[in-house]
Amino acid sequence: MKAYFIRRLLLVIPTLIGITLLVFTVSRFAPGGPYEAALQAATSGGQEGTKGSGDEKGGNLSDELKEELEEQYNFDKILIVAYGQWLGVAPREDLKTKAEFGGESIVKTYDRSTEARFVLRDADRLVSVKIARKGDDSAELQSFKYLDGAGGDPVEDGWTLRIESPQDRNERWARRENSTAEECPSRYDFRAVAFKKRFSGLIQGELGNSFVYGDSVASLIADRVPISLYFGLLSTIIIYVICIPLGVFKAIKHDSIGDNLSSVAIFVGYAIPGYALGAILVVFLGARLGMFPIFGLTSETFSEMSTWGQIKDIAHHTVLPLICFVIGGFAFLTMMMKNNLMENLSSDYVRTAMAKGVTFRKAVTKHAFRNSFIPIATGLGGLISLFVTGSMLIERVFDIQGFGLLQFQAVQAVDTNVIMGTLTISALLMLLGNILSDVIVAFVDPRIKFS
Known about the structure:
Blueprint: H1 2-29, H2 34-44, H3 63-72, H4 79-87, E1 92-100, E2 115-119, E3 126-133, E4 139-146, E5 159-164, H5 166-177, E6 191-198, H6 217-252, H7 257-271, H8 274-288, H9 307-327, H10 329-345, H11 348-355, H12 360-377, H13 383-389, H14 392-397, H15 403-413, H16 416-444
Antiparallel strand pairs: 1-6, 2-3, 3-4, 5-6
Helix pairs in contact: 1-16, 6-9, 6-10, 6-13, 6-16, 7-10, 8-9, 10-12, 11-12, 12-16, 13-16, 15-16
């Protein structure tokens, strides 16, 4: 059994890579993302370019500005490289500084066709790059050094230099404009690009920054998870504490008045979606009667309240959302407990035990209940993801800034970094939850052996 669970744990990594790669691909090509929004905002701001292509996506923005936006949103790399950078197995290019050979420069006393001089970003040091041209599409680097007289070597200081040929720049333009390199209207020259390499991704524990909020994805998740965890724990405790005894009662009192009335009640609740019930409660109990708050988890004056006042305020805001969280789980769990217990009570081993003098109460608690709980135990591992992810629709109705609402908002805005961060956590919890379910089942039923 130990070997089985080790294999399951090892399979988590490739499965997680497959899930994240698929979603990364979809989100990268989804229309209306932050890159397109930034292009539209820059265009509407009246910025005019010197080398504008006049296309619809970006209008008359300069190629330099478009490239900056590409690099900001990591669209300057092909898909597999961009995913590798997000994963942390491919280096990112930080503090990027560019200078075109043959272009304008801060220094005029040199041959601009074979030398470029520029100030390194963040380092504030002047450098010189010399090349030997070998035609229109290739060049050989001759030197890369400081010119400020302070000594040292830029390569030893961690700087990397790349020489981009006109063909390279034409191909980048073609990828950006969804065209061909031959159709590029601009006449590019060789360009020097200096940068520092840095590994920054999932493996390093860095999920990047949100394109919408500007904050780090890790901090956004850390702020939202406790809220969803709060509702997840409360709803799970309430559901299991009520539904399991209720299922036992319904199995023992099958076809009684109590059984029939409780069945009607739980199926009516099951038929009402939690978010729809939330909208009704907000309108009638919140807006019209004023009995409960209609949004948020705390009041505006929460920080000014005493400790006991803050507890009461949170509890007051919790009532309506909590009702919506638990309403859907009652019917499923209750009826599963009832049906499993009734099936086991009619089994031969229970009748044999009662024939030997075991009381009905002991037959239920000592024999039938444990076997009836096994199917329910298979879903206990999935509660891990439920604790954290919450319900995006219920959180949206009550404007609760939880993990689920964060996922919903990220998908709406095509905020790739937030989508990938929340998805990674949700997928990992789901995979671990499945393994935990097997562990719980093996613990509850010793007859089960995994191999």
